[in-house]
Design brief:
By secondary structure, this protein is an alpha+beta fold. It folds into two domains: 3-53 and 100-160; 55-94, no CATH class. It contains six helices and five strands.
């Protein structure tokens, strides 16, 4: 079972810095994430999501490949690529993986001020004590989690720079 963590930061740059730390820890096999999205609010009040994976672009790339193959079979590869890219982009745009976009936009609309950012992380597995040590003192305010109270408290303390206890998942 995955856990969802939403942490607010004073700027998008700070949220991106923390997301990069988490991605680096994933490379070291300390954490396994399903998604990591940064939500920001524009001055006009619109919420923008900075997704880790762009499903529209991935769909277009995959559709282009398959369209090329089908186009070669029917002696018109350019038409095949165009049709494949268009259908792949549409399919990718309609696909939602990881954290639900509507949920993120609703939470960000309620709690964000322009200029602030929320980092949403969907955690599949974690080596709690090592990840908390890596995040110690980065700042941020926990908005919402699906963690139990003990692990949520350990996360809050680590973000604040306090000594985090050993909390493993």
């Amino acid at each position: 079972m995955a856990d969802l963590i939403a942490v607010m930061f004073p700027s998008e740059e700070k949220a991106e810095e923390v997301r990069q730390k988490i991605l680096d820890m994933q490379k070291d096999y300390l954490i396994d994430i399903g998604d990591a999205v940064i939500a920001t609010k524009t001055d006009a009040g619109k919420v923008k999501l900075n997704q880790l994976l762009n499903t529209t672009a991935a769909g277009a790339a995959g559709g282009s490949f398959w369209g090329l193959l089908i186009g070669v079979l029917f002696m018109n590869p350019l038409l095949g690529v165009a049709a494949g890219a268009a259908s792949g982009a549409v399919a990718g745009a309609l696909t939602d993986v990881g954290v639900n976009d509507r949920f993120m936009k609703e939470l960000a609309t309620e709690d964000l001020k322009p200029g602030e950012a929320v980092l949403f992380v969907l955690v599949r597995k974690v080596t709690g004590d090592k990840v908390l040590a890596g995040l110690e003192g980065v700042g941020g305010r926990v908005l919402q989690t699906s963690l139990d109270h003990t692990r949520e408290d350990a996360l809050r303390k680590a973000l604040a720079g306090e000594t985090a206890g050993a909390a493993t998942s």
